[in-house]
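This section describes the prediction task in plain terms. A model, or a person checking by hand, is given the sequence of a single protein chain and must write out its three-dimensional structure as a string of tokens. No templates, partner chains or ligands are provided. The sample shown here is typical of the held-out split.
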Amino acid sequence: MEFTHFDEQGNAVMVDVGEKPETRRMAKAVGRIKVSEEVFQKIQNKSMEKGDVLNVARVAGIMAAKQTFQLIPMCHLLMLTKCSVDFTLHEEEGRYAVEAVCTVKTNGKTGVEMEALMGVSTALLTIYDMCKAVDKSMEMTGIHLLEKTGGKSGDFQWKES
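The expected answer:
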């Protein structure tokens, strides 16, 4: 069984996963947004004028993961069995960041890596959107797949290079 996003004429196509067996699949992605001390304090104290930044970002990340197939052309529509977005606030030597981790699960014929990456990216973008009135110099960084399980290609665990 060969999987490619191109047909014999070179046209883009969605891969046919119809013959693949269903397996339990999980993917976890991570990313950070570097923020100013003022933004960090407002997020931590839930005092940003637009509201509770992390709860809004959590919902946005979950919504985005569920809509990945509508934004990434060759992604399949998947029935997600779980999606969560969790945050950790980092304060290290005068540097401030919010880390987001998106975990997605399904029972299916294709993986959920793109859904996890979409969820974490959108959560970070939402933090930016809710805080940009205070500081426009925020920087999103380090967005990557942490781990995945299930499927023919087996498990994956991020290793720092």
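For orientation: The helical segments are 37-44, 53-66, 68-71, 113-131.
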